[in-house]
Write a structure and sequence with these properties.
six-stranded mixed β-sheet; six-stranded parallel β-sheet; globular
Length: 314
């Protein structure tokens, strides 16, 4: 595919249905606040698991077009990395470990591949759970979806550097045996005492069974893309959450069926239900800072202000 040359400094958004994303309205408002007065955003849409040649065309355009500053990558993080690894001049340590691309930037003529999700997912998780959530709780984590986001957030939760603030165990489920092997490979390189179980699911009823085995206060995460990129939920409507669980959907737009299922049981079972909005804020601000080579204060006051700007722009 041939892309038109950009006429303004442009951040590309590589996704599935980028035109429906709030970032298309939020970015101009953020750009004004951040002093990026001439910056633009442009979407590049691909079906999940697209032809590697399509990813290479997009990356070549970003590399060769002087006004293309870089990109945020969602959904395609692992596939794009696999297709384009030889095109990157530099690969950051997280991207090397996780074999994924969530951000592309350009420095001194070099195309740089980054994985920002370990940082942004950690900020989001610690933000809504608070400090020391796992200490003495004996709670589990169920991550439904072993793609790039699932890899990043499990990395954050299982690291030995967290001391006693660790989940009792982590269960990762996915339909793809290949994806489960990818995440297992990453976990094998992370010093950790947290046991991890990998389950290849055949349908939502398998996730229902995994959910029923969790301890109270466990964290249940929809990292599948279901409810945004594709219709549905990784759970059936008969699924029963553990008492006091935190249900986190990485999506913030779309059908959000998983969120509806959790909200239907929230009062009865004492659930905390969290959508992907805060993850969206941290993820995008980290990439914008990298692509445009600026500093964005990640402190609560500035993130709160950026969140208010985003909500108004939505």
């Amino acid at each position: 595919m041939t892309y038109p040359r950009c006429t303004r400094p442009t951040l590309h958004f590589i996704g599935v249905t980028t035109g429906a994303s709030s970032i298309m309205r939020v970015f101009p408002a953020w750009a004004e606040y951040l002093g990026l007065t001439d910056a633009a955003i442009a979407g590049m849409d691909f079906a999940p698991h697209a032809d590697p040649a399509a990813y290479r065309d997009a990356v070549a355009h970003i590399r060769d077009d002087p006004m293309s500053m870089g990109a945020l990558v969602t959904t395609h993080k692992i596939d794009l990395f696999a297709a384009c690894r030889d095109m990157f001049d530099r690969i950051d340590p997280f991207a090397t470990l996780m074999q994924e691309t969530s951000c592309l930037s350009k420095r001194d003529g070099a195309l740089v591949c980054h994985a920002k999700d370990p940082i942004s997912s950690g900020l989001a998780i610690d933000g809504f759970l608070g400090p020391d959530y796992w200490t003495d709780r004996g709670a589990d984590v169920l991550v439904m979806g072993a793609g790039g986001s699932g890899i990043a957030l499990t990395w954050h939760l299982m690291r030995a550097e967290r001391g006693p603030n660790l989940p009792r165990r982590i269960i990762v489920s996915d339909r793809s045996a290949e994806r489960l092997e990818d995440i297992r490979r990453v976990h094998g390189q992370v010093p950790s005492t947290v046991p991890v179980t990998y389950v290849q699911v055949t349908g939502a009823d398998t996730n229902d069974r995994l959910l029923s085995d969790l301890t109270p206060w466990s964290l249940v995460i929809n990292a599948t893309g279901l409810g945004k990129d594709r219709p549905g939920s990784p759970l059936t409507d008969a699924a029963v959450f553990p008492e006091g669980a935190v249900a986190w959907d990485l999506n913030y737009r779309g059908e959000l069926v998983f969120l509806d299922q959790a909200r239907a049981r929230a009062n009865r079972d004492g659930l905390t239900v969290v959508d992907g909005w805060t993850y969206f804020i941290h993820g995008w601000t980290k990439v914008i800072a990298e692509v445009f080579d600026i500093v964005i204060d990640p402190g609560p006051d500035n993130i709160g202000h950026l969140t208010r700007i985003a909500r108004e722009a939505r």
